[in-house]
Each structure stands twice: as C-alpha cells, then as structure tokens.
Amino acid sequence: MTDPAIAVTGAAATEIIMDYDRVHLLLPHRPPLLMIDRVRLIPAEKRAIGLKNVTMNEPYFQGHFPGNPVLPGVLILEAMIQTSGAAIRQFLDIQNDVAFLRTLDNIKFRKPVLPGDRLMSDVTLERARNGLAKFRATASVRDQQVAQAEFTVGLRANVPDHSRSADFAPSPVMDAAPLQTAPINDINRIMNIIPHRYPFILVDAVYFMGADRIVALKNVTGNEFFFNGHFPKYPIMPGTLLVEAIAQAGAVFILDKPENKGKLAYFMGVEKARFRRSVWPGDQILIDVRQMVTRPRVGKAHGRIFVGPHLVAEARISFVLVDRPSPS
C-alpha cells in the first residue's frame, strides 16, 4: 500500500499533498461534517490549502434553503477551520490534541457556494503560543474569493471538565430567572417564517419577541447529524453551528416583520465570536439575539447563547435581505 501523504518534487519539494485517506487519519472529523477532501501543505509558508468538492448529495442541502441550494456560510468556515487542523498537526507536530474553536473575527461572506463548485480553503498560521493558534484564511471558487476569516483555536489533549454541566437538567434562564412560560412560537410557526428544514434547522421554539429582541430555544440531542462527524469521541456541538443558531434566531425575528415577508436573510459576516464552554447532548441552549442596526436591506445583531445560567458563546452577525426566488 502506498503512503497517502505524497511529497511534491521539483521546485515545490517541501510541499506535501494529502489525499482523503490521510486526511481521515489526521483529523478527528467524520462525515457528514468532514469538510475537506484533500489538503496541500506548504510548510515553508506555514500555509495549508484544503479542497472540498461540493455536491447536491450532501445532507445539509436538504435543510438549507430547499429549492435554492447554497452551502451554509458556517460550513465554509468549518472547511477553513478543519484545514487549519491539518496545519496544526503538521507544522506544530501535534498529533493527539483536539483543537477547539475559541474566536472568530473579520468574517465576510462575498459570494454563494453552490453544488458543482470546488471550494479551496487557504489558511496561514500567524502565531502559536500559550496553547492558542491564530490563523488567517480565505476561501475561493474558481480563483474568486467567496469568504475570509480570522480565528483562533485552543489546543488541548482532553476536553476540560468545567465545560460539562454538573446539573442533570438545568432550566433555561432568561434575564436571570428560570424560563417558566410556554413558547409563543412553536416549530410549525418557525418553519412558516424561515426556509430552513431538517437536518439544518437550529431553532425549536421562540419564547420572547420584542421591538429589538428575540429569545429562542434549541434542544440539543445526540441524534443530530453533526455529532456523527464532529469529534466523535467528544460529542460537542460545533462552534460554527452555534453561530448558525444565532443567525437563524435572528432570521426568525427579522423575517417575521410584515415588510420582510417573502424574503431570505443571507449571512454577510461575523465579528467578535467567542466560545467559552462546550455544548453537549442533553443541553438546552437559549439563544438571545438583539438587533443593533437595521436598514431596508442590511442588518446587524448581537447574539448570546446560554446553557442554564452559563454563557457559552456570543457573536455579532450581519445579514442582507434578498427576495426569495420563485419556485421553478
């Protein structure tokens, strides 16, 4: 059997190309959330390029804008982050540690990625110290940039114990008080507002809707598709999908307004995303999103996610409203 890690000869003698088998050995991610098919490593530049062939056969297209298949922006981020994982293991000689997403900044989505596209994630390791690695990344299709990102990951041999809840069934907490009321919008009402469907709908109920605020809830269970592919030995909800939950709650808020009926909310960017604790099967996440800026087509919001009284993640998001395509 040949070694699936192939050293490139000639002018690029220091480069290494890893095929799917090698990527599978290198990273803990598994389908359906393994977002790179091959990796090209350029050690002299502390740079890695991940290749992902995007096809309609992938499960998230069933749930992300059905009838208008677009690769979710957070999965473009996931492809860049996973490419950085290959870089960490090669450039820093870290083989056994798990890299946990800590921050996301300067995220911009420029163009949609569609089935049939080949996504290239180009990441550069900027620095590594004190158990943190910082990366700068771009993603492109046919040499046109579709996204950019800056992010840091934390390197740990084991999942920190404090990230696990000691409570059996902690109650969701809203404004420092346990949530006692029934939801004002159930899943049927939510699916009448936003187009997301299984397996990519990340809001189960809405408990509060005000002039500039929405509070929504998602039940997290081990049956969800992403747990099969994201750190199977450590079943934690991906940080990128926590950002998606904030975005979907924000979409419920903005698309429920009468003037926005028949529109879609497209992700434009993410700033100041911070991930403080892990989310595990059995947790209920309370998603608290406040509108910061609104214009006729563009908006910004700040979202926080809690498990019980604990803040687990927060992010600022921006979005653009577009007309929903007519059914063909």
List keywords for this structure.
single chain, 328 residues, 16 strands, Thiol Ester Dehydrase, Chain A, 15% helix, 2 domains
Describe the overall structure:
The protein has 328 residues and is an alpha+beta fold. The protein folds into 2 domains: 5-156, Roll (Thiol Ester Dehydrase, Chain A), CATH 3.10.129; 182-323, Hotdog Thioesterase (Thiol Ester Dehydrase, Chain A). The chain contains 4 helices and 16 strands. The strands form 2 sheets. It has a 14-stranded antiparallel beta sheet with strand order 1-2-3-4-6-7-8-5-13-16-15-14-12-11. Helix 2 (73-91) packs antiparallel against helix 4 (239-255). The longest helix has 19 residues, at 73-91. It is globular. The chain starts with a strand and ends in a 5-residue tail after the last strand. The mean pLDDT is 90.
Strand order of the largest sheet: 1-2-3-4-6-7-8-5-13-16-15-14-12-11
CATH class of the largest domain reads: Alpha Beta
How many discrete domains?
Answer: 2
End-to-end distance, in Å?
Answer: 49 Å
Q: Judging by the overall fold, what is the CATH architecture of the largest domain?
A: Roll
Q: Approximately how much helix is present in the residues? A: 10-25%
